[in-house]
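Consider the following input, taken from an annotated entry for Sec-independent protein translocase protein TatA (Mycetocola zhadangensis).
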Amino acid sequence: MLANLTGWHLLIVVFLVLLLFGAPKLPALAKSVGQSMKIFKNEIKSDKTDAPEATAPIPPATTPSVPAAPTPAPTETAAPGSQDAHTKP
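Applying the prediction step yields:
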């Protein structure tokens, strides 16, 4: 029974359901679909204009011309009165 339904039949059934149950909401639905399509088209256009910039070669990273200062070596100094101090009792 359902095997004889074509795309047009399904489209008509969907239209009738929307007409019967969603008639007050149809204008809002059409407006939101239109706004979504407008945003989508604008994004596609902006991606096309941004494409040449995205394919431009990236310059290599530059290294600083001044070398970093070496870190000083730690010294072994003990605080007076600590157990690490090498003093005779």
